[in-house]
Amino acid sequence: MNPRYRRLLIPGLLVLLLVVVIVSSLARRADGAEAKPQVVSRMKDSRITESSGLALSRAYDGIVYTINDSGNDPLIFAIELKTGRTVGVTRIEGGTLSDTEALAIDSEGTLWVADTGDNLERRKDAALYALPEQGPGNHTVVASRYPISYDSDSRNVEALLVNPITGAKLLVSKALLSGTIYKLPTTLSTDHANVAVAQKGAGPSTVTDATFTADGKYVVMRTYASMYLFDATNGKLLNGVRAPDQKQGETIAAEPNSLLVGSEGARSQLIRVPIPSANPEPTAPPSAKPTPEQGEDLPVEPMLFVFGAVGAAVLMGVGVAIRARRSRRVVSD
Q1: CA distances (Å), 288 to each of 11, 201, 285, in order?
Q2: pLDDT at 298 over 90
């Protein structure tokens, strides 16, 4: 090989080698911090095709509740966790539910349904519905309806947080750059709109659900690709890990010492994952606090694509330079 070409090629190869090393390091670091999933069961009911909320029963061992997204009947399904079988269905009356996105249960056993989805951000009828959890069997319940408004324009909200110790209620908006955290009044009214007030700080981008841990110390927000652990007392981001790969990860619920995550889709899986560590190892992948400018970290797969594209561009540039030098040599000759 002509020495002049070699001088051009070597930097390109070094850049490509650096890309491989960086990507391999990122993959190893992500794998080290990634939650180890355990598939518990599949939801077998053919009516459950858009599971968008998940809550662990307080009154019935081994039962979880889920509800479908918009365009479905207002039904809460009681699922036997170990088998995925539907053991109870509760029909909600007392209002017109249009885009149900989240479930949560408070310390008194009240099941809260967030009818707060608003993709176009123009709804004026967002509300929370509250009813005693019904467990197995078929039921029809007239739920209490609590209208919701915001201290600004309408918001698309897919996450409802109910503190299992204090009962405090928070909402988290779903946005492309970063979510807004809203606090609801301590006492809710059925007679007028309950104003959700924006709090300082921001959640990750595209939050699809969130939960307090069972002890109330932490909040876990999930997106389609990741899970983020926050300190419940000061809102500080403590850790971020990849979520299990799912068709459309929409739900999360807290068990005593772990988390359950679920997805939209027919026969979707319920997956148990560890709670992200509040003191991650230094080798954990960086999860800088999401901000309106930064948003959520790219998963490893997009990183591979980006770095691969950069490497390919470098090599293409080297090839172009070689051809250009060759052309100039021919002309000069």
Answers
A1: 31, 13, 9
A2: no
Angle between helices 300-332 and 3-33 (to 10 degrees): 180
Q: What backbone phi and psi angles, to 5 degrees, belong to 32?
A: -65, -30
Closest CA to 46 of 22, 72, 21: 72
How many CB atoms sit inside 10 A of residue 264's CB? 19
In eight-state DSSP terms, residue 285 is P
Helix (H) or strand (E) holding 79: strand 75-80
Residue with tokens 């399904």: 77
Segment 101-125 shows an average pLDDT of 95
Domain 36-273 has CATH 2.40.50.180: no
- Give the closest residue to 223 by CA, choosing from 158, 281, 160: 158
Residue that the structure tokens 């070699």 belong to? 6
Q: CA quadruple 36, 40, 45, 46: dihedral positive or negative? A: positive
> What distance lies between CA 327 and its chain's CA centroid?
54
pTM over 0.70: yes
Residue with token string 């750059």: 177
Predicted local distance difference test score (pLDDT) of residue 152: 81
Q: Which of 84, 116, 63 is nearest to 253 (CA)?
A: 63
In angstroms, the CA 208 to CA 19 distance is: 33
Mode of pairing for the β-strands spanning 144-150 and 157-162:
unpaired
**Residue 94: CB atoms within 10 Å:** 16
Phi (first) and psi of residue 84, to 5 degrees: 80, 5
The first and second tokens of residue 173, run together, are 């908006």
Predicted confidence band at 321 (pLDDT cuts at 50, 70, 90)? low
